[in-house]
């Protein structure tokens, strides 16, 4: 107010959503506590860098107690270990965000938050967005919808590269087919069979998800 920060609180039972800039129920609020804050005073001899949690080509520099966003040069990633921009294959930038290698724009589900999604253009991550409360992102329709219609099952294909088959983490009887980080098909194993880690149906117990040993073992 009038150029000064004024502290306010959400009503009891609600948390402040840092993305939507409004108070929401705790389950719907994107409320992440700062784990690596910037010191209130700058030290020219000890510049503090922070990596960006969503974008490998971005980093932050502490300035007067705040994080100031910076971008690496085109085609370069921020190396969070050595703290400089370098080529992607040399940068230490772990990320589970994989955009499908397809032309144009695509919308990909967030692996941890049903209300959020990633915006990709030509296979490159360009932004993170959030559905308007109380809507969530539908992993099949690739748009925001009401919770009674949208499906927000954690997509097991997020983070995979190329064409792979994996077991459904929620049902070991089902094989999941992934293509460039997206679920393209599923298939149930025959009765008495479950999927191994490579997405191949093997004789096993669907209750314990344990594969039976070979008969001659």
UniProtKB/TrEMBL annotation:
Organism name: Phlebotomus papatasi
Domain Chitin-binding type-2: 35-95, 96-154, 157-211
Claim: Glycoprotein is one of the keywords in the record: yes
PANTHER family: CHITIN BINDING PERITROPHIN-A, CHITIN-BINDING TYPE-2 DOMAIN-CONTAINING PROTEIN-RELATED
Stored SMART domains: ChtBD2
Pfam families noted in UniProt: CBM_14
GO cellular component: extracellular region
Family matches, as Gene3D superfamilies: Chitin binding domain
UniProt keyword list: Chitin-binding, Disulfide bond, Glycoprotein, Repeat, Signal
Database matches in InterPro entries: Chitin-bd_dom, Chitin-bd_dom_sf, Chitin_bind-dev_reg
GO MF entries: chitin binding
Name this protein carries in UniProt: Chitin-binding type-2 domain-containing protein
Lineage summary: Eukaryota, Metazoa, Ecdysozoa, Arthropoda, Hexapoda
């Amino acid at each position: 107010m009038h150029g000064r920060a004024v502290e306010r609180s959400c009503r009891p039972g609600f948390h402040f959503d840092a993305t939507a800039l409004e108070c929401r129920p705790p389950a719907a609020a994107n409320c992440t506590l700062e784990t690596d804050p910037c010191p209130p005073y700058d030290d020219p001899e000890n510049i503090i860098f922070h990596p960006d949690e969503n974008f490998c080509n971005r980093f932050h520099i502490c300035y007067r107690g705040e994080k100031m966003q910076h971008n690496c040069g085109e085609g370069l990633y921020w190396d969070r270990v050595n703290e400089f921009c370098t080529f992607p294959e040399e940068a230490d930038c772990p990320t589970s965000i994989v955009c499908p290698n397809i032309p144009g724009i695509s919308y990909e589900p967030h692996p941890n938050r049903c209300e959020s999604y990633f915006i990709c253009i030509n296979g490159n991550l360009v932004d993170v967005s959030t559905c308007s409360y109380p809507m969530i992102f539908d992993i099949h329709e690739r748009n925001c919808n009401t919770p009674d219609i949208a499906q927000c099952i954690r997509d097991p294909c997020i983070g995979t590269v190329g064409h792979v088959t994996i077991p459904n983490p929620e049902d070991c009887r089902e094989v999941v087919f992934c293509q460039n980080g997206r679920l393209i098909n599923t298939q149930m194993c025959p009765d008495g069979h479950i999927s191994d880690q490579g997405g191949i149906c093997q004789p096993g117990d669907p209750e314990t998800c344990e594969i039976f040993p070979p008969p001659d073992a």
